[in-house]
Amino acid sequence: MKTDIKMLEIDQRNINIKKAKELNLTVPQYNKLISAFRYLQKENEPDIEFPYGRWFDPTAKKEITRGVYMWAGSFGKRYLSQKAFKLKDKSKICWDHCIPPQMFAYYICDNWDMFKVFSIFVDAWKTMSSVIGVISEENTKFSNESVNNKETGNLLKVRVPCVKRYEKYGIKLWDSEEKKWLKGGEFPYQLDEHFNLYERQNLMNWDGVDFDYQLDKTL
User: Are 23 and 122 within 8 A, CB to CB?
Assistant: First the structure.
């Protein structure tokens, strides 16, 4: 005879399986999504200890955003760089987050009034969990595009906008669903102008940005 605790575990597991299917996610993906959402609720909502929400403490931002990185998923796996496509041993492919989750967490937290709506957060989580297959050398280059040190006030900044990362290194992507190559440097995901403007105003390390990058004056 199953114990009461065991029955509760089975019931909760079945609820999670159902909810994951409703969102077209695997159970592990769903668990990461829920952990990220609940975690950011706690860090952004005011309480007795943090009357404005802990996110408003600049010294806490680094730790808070690292937590989000831990709960980003690995979503998509549709696109491969040309070099990853040519790898004979596909187990050596690095599935790189094309939009750094730690960076995207700044955007979510600074706009929490919008993302505290769960349905909107789900789309944001899927966006920051999107991955593209690259080789290890390319992955290292992308890692170096993020800066988080004394010069940036220990806040995460990026050297080029997300949509320019592949263009900077001349990386061409293979679309495994459409069975075709994208244009050289083309970014495969559509980022809305709300994020693009936020990125340019808040996340750019302008001292290190490529001179080839031109800010769109129309924004």
Answer: yes
